[in-house]
């Protein structure tokens, strides 16, 4: 995982055994399926998903390998972005 940005808790660290896949974004978005590319981050995926909600999301939930982590929007902006892995799912709340 790149040293820049925010680190995930150890229980949801990258899993190299995951098959190559895109990123799924759940919520009020125009594009719910994002193509994963090396270096893709949580913020970049949300921008690519084209959020269409009537209010800004207050938090994002990242699901990876059956584990999840909650990222309040304020923390993401203040503490750095989160690198994504193939197959990750983002839930906007």
Describe the protein's architecture and organization.
- There is one protein chain.
- By secondary structure, the chain is α+β, with helices and mostly antiparallel strands.
- It has a single domain (21-92), classed as Outer membrane lipoprotein wza fold like, CATH 3.10.560.
- 16% of the residues lie in helices and 24% in strands.
- The chain has two helices and five strands; from the N terminus they run ββαββαβ.
- The protein has helices at 42-49, 73-79, and strands spanning 23-26, 33-34, 59-64, 67-72, 89-92.
- The chain has a five-stranded mixed β-sheet with strand order 2-1-5-3-4.
- Strand 1 and strand 2 form a beta hairpin.
In summary, what is this structure?
By secondary structure, the chain is an alpha+beta fold.
SSE layout:
Layout: E1 23-26, E2 33-34, H1 42-49, E3 59-64, E4 67-72, H2 73-79, E5 89-92
Parallel strand pairs: 1-5
Antiparallel strand pairs: 1-2, 3-4, 3-5
Q: N- to C-terminal separation?
A: 26 Å
Which structural category fits the helices and strands?
alpha+beta
Number of helices: 2
Please give the order of strands in the largest beta sheet.
2-1-5-3-4
CATH topology: Outer membrane lipoprotein wza fold like
Number of strands: 5
N-to-C series of helices and strands: EEHEEHE
- The fraction of residues in strands falls at 15-25%
Tell me the CATH superfamily: Outer membrane lipoprotein wza domain like
Task: Note the main attributes of this structure.
about 90 residues; alpha+beta; Outer membrane lipoprotein wza fold like; five-stranded mixed sheet; 2 helices; about 15% helix; about 25% strand
